[in-house]
């Protein structure tokens, strides 16, 4: 049985307060984008323990610390699941702020739930996902969501880029999410993202921010350069996603932009 975990971008990201457990309360809108990994589980008779095989982009993870295996162990602590062979084809760049690892983990929970007809509800799966990472519960639902708390309180929102064109650019820079949060001074936003998102995309430039940009841009000027270039090329809105290093641009019409970003991973909406 196979599935195709996809990535996300953050439309705005306000880091509101620091919590006693070290995590941060935030406000963001998660939006699914179709850069995909492939995740397969194969049931092999007489297997004594799980097998994990990774191909594609090298993450340097092992059968012990890859999030898909952590997801497998977690769901197995609730249900009886036999040893399986897991194949993960990595195509979503990591350290990119687009939630690749979190998506793989959430999709593993959904895959096991279907394959073994466990009947767990989306809410139950999201509860398990929240133990694997702050971004994980969103990928259980995988539709545009306004998120609060550490990212686990989710509310569906209406937002679509149907008549627009989206491009994502990731330079050869890997940002650690933990380090990115460490250099943030949390603050209450002037206007809630839930309100901002209702404005026309043309107004977002003046209203919507990603709080990580202020600390990440001085450290990695290349990321800010990509954002400025997207605006120079005519983007209606451009922003870093999550804690970086990816930057996305939203355009009015499809234009050939790839050649402007040599040396970067570039994904364009079909
Ligand atoms: C930056 C975002 O991608 C925005 O969508 C997420 O907030 C990050 O979510 P994630 O990668 O799933 O994060 P986790 O793997 O749970 O946490 C990695 C580290 O980031 C910090 N962290 C994460 C999420 C959050 N709301 N507050 C935090 O302070 C913590 O130090 C944590 O140890
Ligand atoms: N299945 C996985 N795919 C990618 N990275 C993984 C996976 N499992 C564990 N990791 C580890 O997690 C780290 C970052 O993963 P991830 O792709 O979630 O980061 P990200 O793109 O910055 O996303 P996020 O927005 O969730 O922070 C990698 O350096 C890797 O060591």
Description:
This protein is of the alpha+beta class and 270 residues long. The chain has two domains: 2-156, Ribosomal Protein S5, domain 2 (2-Layer Sandwich), CATH 3.30.230.10; 165-268, 2-Layer Sandwich (Alpha-Beta Plaits), CATH 3.30.70.890. Helices cover 28% and strands 27% of the residues. The chain has helices at residues 67-76, 100-115, 122-129, 136-141, 177-182, 193-196, 201-207, 213-219, 221-232; strands at 2-3, 6-18, 24-36, 38-42, 51-56, 85-90, 145-148, 153-156, 165-170, 237-240, 247-251, 265-268. The strands form three sheets. Strands 1-4-6-5 form a four-stranded mixed sheet, covered by helices on one side. It has a four-stranded antiparallel sheet with strand order 2-3-7-8. It has a four-stranded antiparallel sheet with strand order 10-11-9-12. Strand 2 and strand 3 form a beta hairpin. Helix 1 packs parallel to helix 2 and helix 2 (100-115) crosses helix 3. The relative contact order is 0.18. The site of 4-diphosphocytidyl-2-C-methyl-D-erythritol has 20 residues, from strand 2, strand 3 and helix 5. The site of 4-diphosphocytidyl-2-C-methyl-D-erythritol (CDM) has 20 residues, from strand 2, strand 3 and helix 5. It catalyses: 4-CDP-2-C-methyl-D-erythritol + ATP = 4-CDP-2-C-methyl-D-erythritol 2-phosphate + ADP + H(+). InterPro entries: GHMP_kinase_C_dom, GHMP_kinase_C_sf, GHMP_kinase_N_dom, IspE, Ribosomal_Su5_D2-typ_SF, Ribsml_uS5_D2-typ_fold_subgr. ATP binds at residues 93-103. Residues 193-256 form the GHMP kinase C-terminal domain.
């Amino acid at each position: 049985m196979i599935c195709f975990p996809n990535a996300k971008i953050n439309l705005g990201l306000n880091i509101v307060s620091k919590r006693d457990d070290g995590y941060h309360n935030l406000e963001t809108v998660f939006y699914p984008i179709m850069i995909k990994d492939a995740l397969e589980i194969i049931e092999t008779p007489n297997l004594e323990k799980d097998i994990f095989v990774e191909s594609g982009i090298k993450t340097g993870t092992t059968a012990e610390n890859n999030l898909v295996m952590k997801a497998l162990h977690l769901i197995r602590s609730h249900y009886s699941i036999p040893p399986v062979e897991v194949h993960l084809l990595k195509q979503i760049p990591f350290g990119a702020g687009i939630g690749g690892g979190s998506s793989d983990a959430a999709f593993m929970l959904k895959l096991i739930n279907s394959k073994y007809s466990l009947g767990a509800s989306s809410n139950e799966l999201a509860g398990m996902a929240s133990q694997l990472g702050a971004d994980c519960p969103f990928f259980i639902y995988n539709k545009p969501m306004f998120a609060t708390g550490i990212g686990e309180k989710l509310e569906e929102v209406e937002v679509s880029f149907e008549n627009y064109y989206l491009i994502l650019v990731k330079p050869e820079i890997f940002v650690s999410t933990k380090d990115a949060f460490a250099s943030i001074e949390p603050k209450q936003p002037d206007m809630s993202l839930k309100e901002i998102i209702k404005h026309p995309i043309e107004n977002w430039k003046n209203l919507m921010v990603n709080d990580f940009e202020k600390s990440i841009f001085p450290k990695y000027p290349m990321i800010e350069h990509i954002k400025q270039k997207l605006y120079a090329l005519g983007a209606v809105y451009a922003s870093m996603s999550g804690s970086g290093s990816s930057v996305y641009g939203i355009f009015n019409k499809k234009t050939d932009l790839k050649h402007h970003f040599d040396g970067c991973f570039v994904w364009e909406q079909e």
